[in-house]
Every structure is written in C-alpha cells, then in structure tokens.
C-alpha cells in the first residue's frame, strides 16, 4: 500500500538532465530583456546623437563642461568653445547630451 522511499525518489525525475538547465535559461532570458537589451538601445541612441553633432550645438561633456560646438572634425574629435576665446578639443564619444540643436543650413 505504501511506496518505499527508494521507489518514490526514482519515480520523480521526469525531465532528466534538461530540467536542471531550464531555470538557467529563464534567468538568462530575463537578464537579457531587463538589462542587456535596454543598454544596447541606449548605446545605439548615443551613437546616433554623437554622429548628428553640428556646428552651433550646445553640448554637455562627460566631465560636466557645457559649451558650444565650433568645429566637427573627421577623426572623432569635436572642438567645443567653453567661454569666449576658450576652445578645447573633445573626443566625440565623451559628449553626454545635446542641450540645444541648431537648425540645419540648406
């Protein structure tokens, strides 16, 4: 009438070895949609913003400096005017945000 403990333990493993991987796959899927995918989207938006920089845009650098773009160079550099007569060269990827955009000249 009662099953022995050994028989009950042997009858319980229906999925076998794959059953141990299901939680790991679920955890990876959740991490992908909650962490990795949004970070990739944010990186793509930042890259598009940096590529769209133009002369006259007011920007904030990663160091917190606010200035106006005076020249966009081809070799991944931007010249930013921080104050009247104070110009610095900045790597494009260190531009954090664009505060105000200039109208495109046609």
UniProtKB/TrEMBL annotation:
Chief location of this protein within or outside the cell: membrane
Cited InterPro entries: Preprotein_translocase_YajC
Identification of the protein by name: Sec translocon accessory complex subunit YajC
Record carries keyword Protein transport: yes
Top-level lineage group: Bacteria
Family, similarity comment: Belongs to the YajC family.
Key words, A-Z: Cell membrane, Membrane, Protein transport, Translocation, Transmembrane, Transmembrane helix, Transport
Purpose of the protein: The SecYEG-SecDF-YajC-YidC holo-translocon (HTL) protein secretase/insertase is a supercomplex required for protein secretion, insertion of proteins into membranes, and assembly of membrane protein complexes. While the SecYEG complex is essential for assembly of a number of proteins and complexes, the SecDF-YajC-YidC subcomplex facilitates these functions.
Origin organism lineage: Bacteria, Pseudomonadati, Pseudomonadota, Alphaproteobacteria, Rhodobacterales
Localization: Cell membrane
One Pfam family of this chain: YajC
Transmembrane region(s): 6-34
Its membrane topology: Single-pass membrane protein
GO BP terms in the entry: protein transport
Any one cellular-component term (Gene Ontology): plasma membrane
Subunit text: Part of the SecDF-YidC-YajC translocase complex. The SecDF-YidC-YajC translocase forms a supercomplex with SecYEG, called the holo-translocon (HTL).
SMART domains named in the record: YajC
């Amino acid at each position: 009438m009662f099953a022995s403990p050994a028989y009950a333990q042997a009858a319980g493993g229906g999925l076998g070895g794959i059953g141990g991987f299901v939680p790991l796959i679920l955890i990876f899927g959740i991490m992908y949609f909650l962490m990795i995918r949004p970070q990739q989207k944010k990186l793509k938006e930042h890259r598009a913003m940096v590529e769209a920089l133009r002369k006259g845009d007011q920007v904030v650098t990663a160091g917190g400096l606010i200035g106006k773009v005076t020249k966009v160079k081809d070799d991944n550099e931007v010249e930013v005017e921080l104050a009247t007569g104070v110009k610095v060269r900045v790597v494009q990827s260190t531009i954090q945000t664009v505060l105000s955009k200039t109208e495109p000249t046609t």
